Amino acid sequence: MLTLTCPYCGVAAEETELAPGGEAHLTRHGPGSSDTDFEGYLFARQNPRGVLFERWRHAYGCGKWFLAARDSVTLQVFGAYPAQTTAPPDDLVAAIRAARPGWQPPAAVSAHPDGRTGDDYALNPTPARDTLA
Amino acid sequence: MSAPHTQRRSGRYSVFAIAREAMRLHSGWGRAWASPEPRSRYQVVIVGAGGHGLATAYYLGKNFGITDVAVIEKGWLGGGNTGRNTTIIRSNYLQDPSAAIYDKALKLYETLSQDLNYNVMFSPRGLIMLAQTEHEKRGYLRTVNANLLQGVATRWVEPAELGRLVPIMNLAGPRYPVLGGLYQERGGTARHDAVAWGYARACSDMGMHIIQNCEVTGVETAGGRVRAVNTAKGRIECDKLAMVVAGHSSVLAGMAGFRLPIESIALQALVSEPIKPCLDVVVMANTVHGYLSQSDKGEMVIGGGTDGFVNYTQRGSWHHVEETVRALIETFPMLSRLKMLRQWGGIVDMTGDRSPILSRTPVEGIFVNCGWGTGGFKAIPGSGWAMAELVAKGTPGPLAAPFGLERFAEGRFIDESVAAGVAH
């Protein structure tokens, strides 16, 4: 069974505890974008046979969305990280490169419109957990 | 010993052939299809020797006289989803474009054994889709009315009649009482391998090349046009390339430089030990994510659920088996006494609207036939028929036209997720 460690609450959650949310790091196109961009955002997917980045929700746990890197053929999990980023952390990318020599991040992941990398987003770390008064 | 491509082929199958071979200890049967080495060029290359790919090749030859065709296959013929499905055939879809292509397929299945001179064991034993919630009941009543307008014969059956049709069924619930069912008497099953084998034999008879163990490693394009495919057995040039590879469509499209609105996920099935005949219809219970038929060998063939995430493993997650079986044994209590023999998975290609894609692509000369999701087997002849027309003419005919890729940009979905979200 697929097991992912939630980066928020630290629980090693089994697949039945999680809700899959599809491909991660999609560039959001909305009003004012071209039809092609909007269609691509809504429907076109990398759907890679190999390393993929995807969204998950710890549905029967802390309830938060997070992102994970996984191999779609072997189900090997490379790591999970908070969702407040537009790119996977650099150390995770390095770990995947070490495990899968020759692997290249897909274009949508490596190229960001604003030119920032995962490290820039590390300056804005995991937000404090909401406290319910 | 002669090379595979020079081995003797079998002639026409008939009762006389059986009698003749019986007289000589069956020493005279030849190969059903030839296994040639690929040439360096074909008019049409079809990637994927599953049911859809082979049917496309067959109708290219039969309907359009195009026989300069190679069907290339990564593994063995029919070893993908063609050999992994639960063999269900039906055409009781909600939307008109779906009903048209699936009913075309069903009509072709009805005479396929005679057409191919190959027994595909089509068994129109009838198919029932159970309504086990009020919501589902309303949905199926709507489908019955839609089918009436489409000219697809289906009818609503009340629980009392269902009890007579399926004596092993527990109608009373308590969690999922059976409220009625959508009954298509023309639906049924066929031998899935035989469908691929029959088409392969007929294609081989027309002089087409079926090349197994030949993985495509790259697609060569020039000026927005397809030039060739690179394969494990060398470079093969082509005028037209048809990608008919189900779960691996995104991988192949990636080689040609475009993306598809497809996600590949694992769908599971399992089969029990063989028992005496007890179920002579196909029963689908979509609320509990299970569908059931009894094979000619006596095994209970059970289709299960899909994973919700991208998965190329051909296994699927164990807990779906548990969910399927747990729910099914409420409706079919006798299943609780059965041992399961095998469990397996296939990689299905899901689109957002749960309808297939038969389309031109951004690369001229490349055509895709994919997105059949969890229910491609039933569509094989219709899909091949429509795809052959698309490839031969370069523009889709009436069956394929609604299923173009452009429907996603236009927001013109053929939404079958109600009818086919899980069991298909």
Automatic annotation (TrEMBL), chain A:
One of the Pfam families matching this protein, by short name: SoxD
Lineage, uppermost ranks: Bacteria, Pseudomonadati, Pseudomonadota, Alphaproteobacteria, Rhodobacterales
Protein name: Sarcosine oxidase subunit delta
Region of interest (Disordered), ranges: 104-133
A Gene Ontology BP annotation from the UniProt entry: tetrahydrofolate metabolic process
Domain of life where this protein originates: Bacteria
Membrane-spanning parts: none
Gene3D superfamilies (UniProt xref): Folate-binding superfamily
Organism expressing this protein natively: Paracoccus sphaerophysae
GO molecular function, a single term: sarcosine oxidase activity
From TrEMBL, chain B:
Top EC category: oxidoreductase
Gene Ontology MF, one: sarcosine oxidase activity
Keyword entries, A-Z: Cytoplasm, FAD, Flavoprotein, FMN, Nucleotide-binding, Oxidoreductase
Domain of life: Bacteria
Rhodanese domain sequence ranges: 44-88
Cofactors named for this entry: FAD; FMN
EC code: 1.5.3.24
A Pfam family the protein falls into: DAO
Biological processes annotated in GO: tetrahydrofolate metabolic process
Classification via InterPro entries: FAD-dep_OxRdtase (IPR006076), FAD/NAD-bd_sf (IPR036188), Rhodanese-like_dom (IPR001763), SoxB (IPR006278)
Compartment(s) where it occurs, according to its Swiss-Prot or TrEMBL record: Cytoplasm
One GO location term (cellular component): cytoplasm
Catalytic reactions of this protein: sarcosine + O2 + H2O = formaldehyde + glycine + H2O2; sarcosine + (6S)-5,6,7,8-tetrahydrofolate + O2 = (6R)-5,10-methylene-5,6,7,8-tetrahydrofolate + glycine + H2O2
NCBIfam families in the cross-refs: soxB
Similarity annotation: Belongs to the SoxB family.
Name assigned to this protein: Sarcosine oxidase subunit beta
